[in-house]
User: What shape does this take?
Amino acid sequence: MKIIQNYDLTRLNTFGVPATAKFFVEIENELEIKELFTDDVFKNNQKLFLGGGSNILFTQDFDGLVVLNKLKGIGILEEDKESVLVRAMSGEEWHDIVLFAVKNNYWGIENLSLIPGTVGAAPMQNIGAYGAELKNTLVSVEGYDIESGEKKVFTKEECELGYRDSVFKNRLQGKYFIVGVTLKLSKVFNPNTSYKILKDHLVENKIEVKNSKDICDAVCAIRRSKLPDPAVIGNAGSFFKNVFLEKTKDKEKIDKLFLEYPEMPSFEEGDFIKIPSAWLIEQCGPANGASWKGKRIGNVGVHERQALVLVNHGGGTGLEIKNLSEQITDSVFQKFGLKISPEVNLI
Ligand SMILES: Cc1cc2nc3c(=O)[nH]c(=O)nc-3n(C[C@H](O)[C@H](O)[C@H](O)COP(=O)(O)OP(=O)(O)OC[C@H]3O[C@@H](n4cnc5c(N)ncnc54)[C@H](O)[C@@H]3O)c2cc1C
Assistant: This one.
């Protein structure tokens, strides 16, 4: 374990924006965690745990210690005829645990294929895509309390998972270093093809799903065709969360919106109506009726095909991206009276 000073984080965030950490360390095993927790630099500075940097925006240098998570290992804890408990260390790439699952034809996380980043960050925002969420398979999360150094195992309920949300983004933000995640996967044929884009892709390409790899391959193909690759253009996937309105509490607002914008897409989800923020953003713009979609301001902008995705065209800063996100948020609020909020963690 070696603590380095003034470390450049540009290549460690998928926006590719420049930022420096006052102190920086890479952690490869649990022994190093124990060593780290007794170090004065750790004790006396604010800390930031970093995985793949694919859901973070550095708007300034980090005046503290950045801990880069390199804890590796995937193993089976127990299994029976129908299911298997898989534990992964938090520094594993999320997609690698998906590949481990589909190689063994385990079901449950194949719809979450190709989501960038680490296993440890997955519970942070209860990653979700193509009709599935981490919470469908999560059993527990292990984390070290940064104050006491004690290890705690959080049950799924204790993680308080919600839409792109968890206890680790709220009450316990920055308080635990997540080191391991345990998932319960099914051995029984169990495809989830409820999500329209996925269902259409399978039909159009005449794919008969026989194993979980078929879904994984389909999701990878869709994602590669739709989402910008951070290796080509800096981004962190969806910058904003979708809007959820409560059917009863927000009834007046919902009725008014549908009267004014009958073409507004919406999806019923339990007691809520989900309104896609991408659509709201597409309807708004900086001025003169132009849409935000595809708009470039200096070196940053909104992706030309995905209005939810903010991009760094090269040479952009985190502050520029933050300013753009605030302009978009304001214009959506002015037009629709709806507040869109960031999914990305701003530092
Ligand atoms: C092209 C693209 C597509 C994406 N698509 C999706 C998608 O479909 N669905 C989805 O949900 N997300 C998506 N994302 C967002 C992102 O991939 C996920 O949020 C992912 O889980 C972030 O992992 P990470 O390791 O990169 O986290 P980081 O960006 O490194 O960290 C994110 C947050 O988690 C904290 N954190 C990270 N590791 C730990 C740890 N071990 N202990 C404590 N705190 C920690 C960090 O401090 C930070 O606050 C996408 C991103 C990109 C770039």
Summary: The mean pLDDT is 96. The radius of gyration is 21 Å.
